[in-house]
Amino acid sequence: MKKQTAGRDNLGKFAPKFAELNDDVLFGEVWSREEQMSARDRSLITCAALMAQGLYPQLKAHMSMAKTNGVTKEEMVELITHLAFYCGWPKAWSAFDLAKDIYGE
């Protein structure tokens, strides 16, 4: 997995400890445990959790990461469709708007 620097890039001066935890612990240690679970599967789970909470800016970033990690458009569409019944129809509409931007029409 590519080394994550989003924390330091966005919050390094303002919240350096948070940035360090984001980049080194969350992405450096947790996401890198690919023997336990692939980055692809982690991406699917993370997108599901973010959609359920309605956290669309973070969902957009993780949906893009999911594409990089091998999640196909068809899989993302299925994830959103499935979760529409558990998370809410409006959240699915919002997630589909993001997916269309990331995966294309």
From TrEMBL:
<dbReference type="InterPro" id="IPR052512">
    <property type="entry name" value="4CMD/NDH-1_regulator"/>
</dbReference>
<feature type="domain" description="Carboxymuconolactone decarboxylase-like">
    <location>
        <begin position="16"/>
        <end position="101"/>
    </location>
</feature>
<protein>
    <submittedName>
        <fullName>Carboxymuconolactone decarboxylase family protein</fullName>
    </submittedName>
</protein>
<dbReference type="Pfam" id="PF02627">
    <property type="entry name" value="CMD"/>
</dbReference>
<dbReference type="InterPro" id="IPR029032">
    <property type="entry name" value="AhpD-like"/>
</dbReference>
<dbReference type="InterPro" id="IPR003779">
    <property type="entry name" value="CMD-like"/>
</dbReference>
